[in-house]
Structure formats: structure tokens, C-alpha cells
Specification:
66 residues, alpha+beta, Factor Xa Inhibitor
Length: 66
């Protein structure tokens, strides 16, 4: 049986923390920043844990991270 392949685009966007949760970066911080408040832009900084409903979609894309 051949090895499972990791989707490289997903591997660059997601990582797994120590608890086994998938961590992703926040969206909406790339462009059109002038109309967004400073508070909103600060809140979008950093990473967040992926929701349980999306876990099943992303986990098969990065099989060797678990």
C-alpha cells in the first residue's frame, strides 16, 4: 500500500497543538484595512483553534500531523 500524501497547501496553513487541536490563522487581515477599526484588527492578530465541525474536513488533508 502506498503512503498517504499530505496536501501541502493545508500543511502550510494548519498545525496541530499539544492538545491535538488544529490551529489556524485569523482571516480578514490581509487587505482593505482602512475601514476596519484598530480594535478589530488587533482581535484578528494571531491564531485560533478550529471548530469541531471543520475538524473532519481538515484532518484528512494533514494525516501525519496527528
Amino acid at each position: 500500500m502506498s503512503k498517504m500524501k499530505t496536501k501541502k497547501a493545508a500543511a502550510k496553513r494548519f498545525r496541530v497543538n499539544g492538545n491535538g487541536d488544529i490551529v489556524r490563522s485569523q482571516a480578514n487581515k490581509r487587505h482593505i484595512l482602512t475601514k476596519k477599526s484598530s480594535k478589530r484588527k488587533r482581535a484578528l492578530t494571531g491564531t485560533t483553534i478550529m471548530k469541531d465541525c471543520d475538524f473532519g474536513l481538515v484532518a484528512p488533508l494533514i494525516p501525519y500531523k496527528f
